[in-house]
């Protein structure tokens, strides 16, 4: 009995001193920090679905009196950086030391995770270079008409879904069906028909399997993003998502690729560009111009391998990131327009004038000309970025310029995008929805690195052009013939704690009315 008690005491003591040492990392370096709780550090309420991570980050961002503060995601130290020069240093000036996102990735158990958002180092550099030509403005122009057809389907579905008495609609679900249709069409040439057939769509159902988080799956994803040390342990026993979902996606993509290659079918979509990359080692960009930011390294990537599983992973992230993020942004644009009728009125006037200029046809050039639409989208992304933070992990010892703070190898640096974009220091009256912040005159007043909804530097969001285009076209499709208003059921409060992206906790219900001629100016 004495031996058992002694053993228990020794084990307890070892665990106690291990965590005590781990949770003293920031204090030992003189960094402002706060008491951590065993075993989850500062993110226990997030892991247990009690709070969204952005609520926790906001608490420490507001509480901190310094240019940075240190917290713990599980046992992993996380430095929240507030100084814009430090942010520039991490994202751009010293990018080679902060290239990776630090997300735990287990390719052996989940091949769908071997995609551009999660892979690291040379593998990321090579793939980024190879994929950049797939996202030029020229490629988007080729996809424009397909997106426009999906917009027509959205308007049809909107009319069908409106409550006959109130005009109420669950907006997030409706626009998610639109973005699934867009991404399925421009991604791999498949008509998902999510907006038709009484909403019976196998591809839409697959999308719900991907985004609806079951408790274990949600917990694993959270640890991968916000607790990689714990994730390394648990991923030995569990994997993200279901094997059935992964196999369904693999089979779907395999079948499409085999059919195209066998029957010599070519389409103007993302999948065709990947087939070109698989077969020829590159995507043709001879008719497109690449921005300097589009390419990490202008030298052609050597020893590039593009297996079928890597191929499918890129289709997966294009699909998942493309439909869910744009649907969230479009939902929030509609909410802010419903809340601000004068802004909605001005935007509709711009849409009407643009359509009139282009013979009542929606064109790519017409969408690009709509300055106020761009301002409304930018302000929506300021208040409601899809990702509330950026994380970069240090791979070489360095020092932050604002304070000469030493950053050890393996330290995670957090850039609190959500909080910086709502900081009164950079955006006066920060919680007010005001697209004028992004007018030609005012946008020059926004400090560099104070607005980062798509990140910055070589690892900025490669799909931002497509995301913005499909979001704008979805909004135009709705506002051409409808007005949007707050409903008695509209409720926007905190963010859902189950997700690593910033989703509203409740369904967003808005009311729609036909845009009749007396409302036109």
UniProtKB/TrEMBL annotation:
Membrane-spanning parts: 316-338
InterPro entries assigned to the protein according to its UniProt record, in alphabetical order: Cyt_P450 (IPR001128), Cyt_P450_CS (IPR017972), Cyt_P450_E_grp-I (IPR002401), Cyt_P450_sf (IPR036396), Insect_CytP450_Detox (IPR050476)
Keyword vocabulary terms for this entry: Endoplasmic reticulum, Heme, Iron, Membrane, Metal-binding, Microsome, Monooxygenase, Oxidoreductase, Transmembrane, Transmembrane helix
Known cofactor(s): heme
Organism of provenance: Chrysoperla zastrowi sillemi
Name the record gives this protein: Cytochrome P450 CYP4422A2
Compartmental location: Endoplasmic reticulum membrane; Microsome membrane
Family of the protein in this entry: Belongs to the cytochrome P450 family.
Signal sequence region: none
UniProt topology in membrane: Peripheral membrane protein
Gene Ontology cellular component list: endoplasmic reticulum membrane
